[in-house]
Design goal:
Number of strands: 9
Number of helices: 6
CATH topology: Rossmann fold
Number of domains: 1
Strand order of the largest sheet: 3-2-1-4-5-6-7
CATH architecture: 3-Layer(aba) Sandwich
Bound molecules: 5-O-phosphono-beta-D-ribofuranosylamine
CATH class: Alpha Beta
Distance between the termini: 18 Å
Largest sheet: 7 strands, mixed
Strand content: 15-25%
Structural class: alpha/beta
Order of helices and strands: EHEHEHEHEHEEHEE
Shape: globular
Length: 204
């Protein structure tokens, strides 16, 4: 499958997908990387790996419609079959969500539905988990719908929160899990058919 990875930040999840492709863990290829942030390191990681890297920001367009159609044109140009949000902090245009229904994955650094939704991203998530005194945290891969972090769950994996964990040490533990389950979720899409059953995605 041709994958488009969308990222706003450092790009470590993008890197883990590219490494999984190199190791043959997934057969898909990252055909396009898009970031809303021209300084995102994810764009550098793409360029180093000779992957088309595009800065696409709503701020550069006069209307939502023009932005959305440029978005769709890009996805079509690279024959994208699966979109993977890897630390992408913006909502997608509705028309993109509808066009790629059930073919957009997002990685979230917590055990959704807990600690999700608007404003719950990056370090804020780990701070909230520790503040609440949770014994476990983890990462979730879910399908993307019109809202933040509410789509059906594809994969989830837990990690223990130690009493001496800080948001930074917890982030490191969770990131390791993200780098593992995101390629696993892509592999499921390569080899099986997703069936949405309520808030879960089963694969046949
Ligand atoms: C990850 O923690 C991801 O769960 C969250 O944003 C972070 C992205 O990290 N959505 P990176 O840019 O992939 O290193």
């Amino acid at each position: 499958m041709n994958i488009c990875v969308m990222a706003s930040g450092w790009g470590s999840n993008l890197e883990s997908i590219i490494n999984s492709q190199k190791k043959g863990i997934i057969s898909s290829r990252v055909a396009l990387v898009i970031s809303n942030n021209s300084n995102s390191n994810a764009l550098n990681i793409a360029r180093i790996n000779q992957i088309p890297a595009v800065h696409l920001s709503r701020l550069r367009f006069d209307s939502d419609g023009e932005y959305a159609s440029e978005f769709l044109n890009l996805l079509k140009k690279y024959n994208i079959e699966l979109i993977v949000l890897a630390g992408y902090l913006k909502l997608l245009p509705q028309v993109v969500v509808h066009t790629y229904k059930n073919r957009i994955l997002n990685i979230h650094p917590a055990l959704l539905p807990q600690f999700g939704g608007k404003g719950m991203y990056g370090m804020f998530v780990h701070e909230a988990v520790i503040k609440k005194g949770e014994k476990f945290s983890g990462a979730t891969v879910h399908l993307v719908d019109e809202h933040y972090d509410t789509g059906p769950i594809v994969l989830q994996e837990k990690v223990e929160v130690s009493s001496d964990d800080t948001p930074e040490t917890l982030q490191k533990k969770v990131l390791k899990i993200e780098h593992k389950i995101l390629p696993e979720a892509i592999k499921l899409y390569e080899t099986k058919t997703p069936v949405i059953t309520g808030r879960e995605v089963k694969f046949t």
